[in-house]
Design goal:
alpha/beta; Rossmann fold; 2 domains; 6-stranded mixed beta sheet; two-stranded antiparallel ribbon; 10 strands; elongated; MoxR protein; VWF_A; vWFA_dom_sf; DUF58
């Protein structure tokens, strides 16, 4: 990891940079009670469930007990009213689904989307563990999806961040060996194995590559968990098809392309602009809160703003 630490931090991240974000992981949270201007509150998004309840024991009904906890089967069988006693689950599983595919290796004037995704994951991981919840992850690129089961410790967060940094530094310009759709499918296949009920799933991605099958998998996750989308885009992606002239570079070679070509504009609109809009529509359809992130502004500031923090 240290051999690449001299690389441009806007292009590649490293474990040290992600570790230091621990000191910026404040002023936001994912608890059920949210500020009024948070993206996680309001009638158009799902409410966070909060920590779950564990069944402890069955007891005779006492005056003042909540009637909603009555166990009618036991009551009918014994002829005496019984209620279920629950205790609050102190820890909650939070799953970070971190996109490190080739489509994320893009940035116009700020950081690469892949670096932004890594920083979002780091900030949330540190905050989750600080709140005594457990954090796990699935880090996926064009070829593989690495899953790490939830735990709660500083060393566990460092393990996650190290794996993110490794995947991040493996990115390079070029064509992916696998399609975006297939890599998305691998992510959700791993998610079905890792993610349990009543967790918080935070998908950090640009959204490229989803299809109807992915939509069904997203729907399945939403049925049993809270899902939040951290949608990472670069400002240039929204305007690229309208530019007269563009110059692309992989760090060694440059390619000049004219945006005035009708076929290019049409292909780009279908491939990129439509992908952004379609994934936003999927999020709206299943009432998934969307936290927007760009590649220009500090990530901790964007995260606090999205979750309704007072930045004054």
């Amino acid at each position: 990891m240290e051999t690449k630490s001299i690389l441009d931090p806007d292009i590649y991240t490293n474990l040290k940079a992600l570790r230091l974000l621990k000191y910026k992981a404040h002023g936001f949270d994912f608890l059920p009670t949210q500020p009024i201007n948070s993206a996680l509150t309001g009638r158009h998004v799902s409410k966070l469930r909060g920590r779950g309840l564990n069944f402890e024991e069955m007891c005779h009904y006492q005056i003042g007990d909540d009637i909603r906890t009555m166990d009618w089967k036991v009551t009918m069988r014994t002829g005496k009213p019984h209620v279920k006693i629950f205790s609050e689950e102190r820890e909650r599983n939070v799953y970070l689904l971190v996109d490190q595919r080739t489509s994320m290796f893009f940035g116009s004037t700020g950081r690469m989307k892949s670096v932004v995704a890594a920083e979002i994951a780091s900030l949330i991981a540190w905050k989750v563990v600080g709140n005594t919840d457990r954090v796990g992850t699935i880090i996926y690129n064009d070829n593989t999806a690495l899953s790490i089961a939830p735990q709660r410790s500083t060393n566990h967060v460092l393990k996650i961040l190290n794996e993110i940094a490794i995947k991040n530094q493996q990115l390079k310009a070029g064509k992916a060996k696998d399609s975006q759709t297939n890599s998305f499918a691998k992510l959700f296949h791993q998610a079905q194995r890792l993610v349990k009920h009543d967790g918080l799933v935070i998908l950090i991605t640009d959204g490229y590559g989803y299809n109807e099958r992915s939509e069904e998998q997203i729907k399945s996750l939403c049925q049993h968990n809270d899902v939040v989308l951290c949608h990472v885009t670069d400002p240039l992606e929204h305007d690229l098809a309208t530019l007269n002239k563009m110059v692309f570079s992989d760090g060694q070679m440059q390619l000049s392309v004219s945006g005035q070509e009708d076929k290019l504009r049409e292909d780009f609109s279908n491939d990129v602009v439509q992908a952004i809009e379609n994934f936003s529509l999927v999020a709206k359809k299943y009432r998934i809160p969307v936290l927007p992130f760009n590649t220009l502004d500090p990530i901790d500031v964007q995260l606090r703003k999205a979750l309704g923090a007072n930045l004054k």
